[in-house]
C-alpha cells in the first residue's frame, strides 16, 4: 500500500476509485464500504484509494484534540490488510475547510485526483460547514459522469453501527461488545514510560503506557488484555484509571504482563483490551490492593 502526502493542488498520475469518510475505528460498517471499494477497483481495473485527513477535522476547527478509536497508524495497517492500494493523506487546513462542495468534488476529486468512481456511506457530508450531502454528491457525480456507490447503514443485532455508538460502549466498559462491532480488539498504541515502581516491589511489575494519540478513555477499571511487544503477544491484566489507592491523580494505563520480566522502557507497544473485569476500587491498604491484583491476574491466566 502506498501512502501519498498531498495538498489541494496535488495532481494524481492515474485514475482511481476512492472511498471517502473518517473511518475512525475501521468498524464492520466501514469494512463493508472498503470491500466494495476494492471490488469496484478490480472491476474497473483501477487502483483503490482512500482520502484521509492527517488529523481529525475537529482538531483544526475547535483547536482541541478529539478522542479517537484508532490512530492513523492502526487505520493504515487495517487498510493494507483489506487490500487498499493508495492512501491520500492531506492536512485539514483553512484551504480545505473552506472548499465548497462543488470545488471539493469537481476540482479536487474528479480533476486533480482523477477519481473515476466514488464510494461513500449513506450519511456522508462534505465541503464548507458540511454543506454538501448525498443528494448534492449524486448531482455532481451525474453531471461529471462519475460512478457513485452509496453504502446502506449496517445493523448488527438491532444496533445501527457507528463510531459514536462504539465510543459509548467503550466509555461504559463494554469493550467485548465494542470489539465485535469493530471486527478487532480496541487497541491503545503507546510507549512504555517509567512509573513509581511500587508494583515491581510487590511482585507485580507493570508497564506504564503513555498513549501516542488521544484515545477514547474506557470506563476506569481492570481489563483482561493482550499486549504486543516486538511482534509477540502476551497476556496482561491492565488497570486504566487514577490508581485511587496510591495516587488518585492523572490517568494511568498500567499493564501487568504475565510471564514477562524484560525491561521495555521506551518501547512502542500495542495494548488490546479484551474484556472488562472489574471497576477501579479504592482499597483501605496497599496489601488489599495487591491481593485483588493477584485475583485479577488469575482471571487473565484462566482466559
From TrEMBL:
It comes from the Bacteria. Pathway: Cofactor biosynthesis; FMN biosynthesis; FMN from riboflavin (ATP route): step 1/1; Cofactor biosynthesis; FAD biosynthesis; FAD from FMN: step 1/1. InterPro entries: FAD_synthase, Riboflavin_kinase, Riboflavin_kinase_bac, Riboflavin_kinase_bac/euk, Riboflavin_kinase_dom_sf, Rossmann-like_a/b/a_fold. Its EC number is 2.7.1.26, 2.7.7.2. CDD domains: FAD_synthetase_N. It holds the Pfam family Flavokinase. Coiled coil: none annotated. Keywords: ATP-binding, FAD, Flavoprotein, FMN, Kinase, Multifunctional enzyme, Nucleotide-binding, Nucleotidyltransferase, Transferase. It catalyses: FMN + ATP + H(+) = FAD + diphosphate; riboflavin + ATP = FMN + ADP + H(+). Residues 181-303 form the Riboflavin kinase domain. GO terms for molecular function: ATP binding; FMN adenylyltransferase activity; riboflavin kinase activity. Belongs to the ribF family. This is Riboflavin biosynthesis protein. It comes from Peptoniphilus stercorisuis.
Amino acid at each position: 500500500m502506498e501512502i501519498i502526502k498531498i495538498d489541494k493542488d496535488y495532481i494524481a498520475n492515474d485514475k482511481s476509485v476512492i472511498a471517502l469518510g473518517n473511518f475512525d475505528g475501521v468498524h464492520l460498517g466501514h469494512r463493508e464500504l472498503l470491500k466494495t471499494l476494492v471490488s469496484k477497483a478490480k472491476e474497473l481495473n483501477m487502483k483503490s484509494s482512500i482520502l484521509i485527513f492527517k488529523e481529525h477535522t475537529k482538531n483544526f476547527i475547535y483547536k482541541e484534540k478529539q478522542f479517537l478509536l484508532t490512530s492513523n497508524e492502526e487505520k493504515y495497517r487495517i487498510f493494507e490488510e483489506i487490500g487498499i492500494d493508495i492512501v491520500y493523506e492531506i492536512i485539514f487546513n483553512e484551504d480545505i475547510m473552506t472548499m465548497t462542495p462543488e470545488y471539493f468534488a469537481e476540482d479536487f476529486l474528479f480533476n486533480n485526483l482523477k477519481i473515476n468512481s466514488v464510494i461513500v456511506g449513506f450519511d456522508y457530508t462534505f465541503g464548507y460547514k458540511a454543506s454538501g450531502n448525498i443528494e448534492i454528491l449524486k448531482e455532481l457525480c451525474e453531471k461529471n459522469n462519475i460512478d457513485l456507490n452509496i453504502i446502506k447503514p449496517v445493523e448488527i443485532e438491532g444496533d445501527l453501527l457507528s463510531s459514536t455508538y462504539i465510543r459509548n460502549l467503550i466509555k461504559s466498559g463494554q469493550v467485548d461488545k465494542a470489539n465485535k462491532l469493530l471486527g478487532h480488539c480496541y487497541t491503545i498504541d503507546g510507549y512504555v514510560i517509567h512509573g513509581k515502581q511500587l508494583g515491581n516491589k510487590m511482585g507485580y511489575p507493570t508497564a506504564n503506557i503513555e498513549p501516542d494519540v488521544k484515545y477514547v478513555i474506557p470506563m476506569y477499571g481492570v481489563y483482561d488484555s493482550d499486549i504486543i511487544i516486538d511482534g509477540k503477544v502476551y497476556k496482561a491484566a491492565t488497570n486504566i484509571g487514577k490508581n485511587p489507592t496510591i495516587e488518585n491523580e492523572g490517568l494511568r494505563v498500567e499493564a501487568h504482563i504475565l510471564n514477562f520480566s524484560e525491561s521495555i522502557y521506551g518501547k512502542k507497544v500495542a495494548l488490546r483490551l479484551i474484556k472488562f473485569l472489574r471497576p477501579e476500587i479504592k482499597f483501605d491498604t496497599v496489601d488489599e490492593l495487591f491481593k485483588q491484583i493477584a485475583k485479577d491476574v488469575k482471571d487473565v491466566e484462566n482466559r
